[in-house]
Amino acid sequence: MAETAMLKKPFILTKPLEAYKGSYFSEVFVWKAGTPPVAVDISGYHFEAMFRDSYGATDIIKTLTDGDGLILTEAEGKVEMVLQTTDTDLFNVTLTASKSASDIPYKDFPFDIDAIPPDNAKRFQFVKGVLRVYGEVTRSG
Q: Which of 38, 76, 122, 135 has the most CB atoms lying inside 10 A of its own CB?
């Protein structure tokens, strides 16, 4: 078996990903390495993502794993993160008074995706970022 490919550091997203409470969300990440960059075959890897209310929070809002919210296309190095409508409903976005009608309340939720190598060596961060979830205006109750 080939040596486990490790990332020197995670892919750190410089802008928040954007989702809407109660809506479907999807984002694809591709693991590439080398010069020129080529996709890393992630066969045998397992992936896990966690979303929290803040970086210091102990409670987990949502966990995704490969086969349950993380869809892998192994030969292409792709990890697709999927949140169903029921998943984005879990993110508590407090609706507050806005200064103008165009201000849509939102909250940022930190997340990361860890990669677990086939040889079960130490897991490492694959992606690190923030999911910005916008609140609903039209809702029942």
A: 135
3-state secondary structure of 87: helix
Question: What count of other Cβ atoms lies within 10 Å of the Cβ of residue 40?
Answer: 19
**pTM score over 0.90:** no
**Domain count for the chain:** 1
Q: What is the secondary structure of 26-49 as a DSSP string?
A: EEEEE-EETTTTEEPP-TT-EEEE
Domain CATH code at residue 109 = 2.60.40.10
pLDDT at 60 over 60: yes
In a domain, 20, yes or no: yes
In whole angstroms, give the CA distance from residue 115 to residue 127: 9
Identify whether 99 is part of a domain: no
**Who wins on pLDDT, 119 or 100?**
119
Domain of 84, in residue numbers: 15-31+45-93+104-134
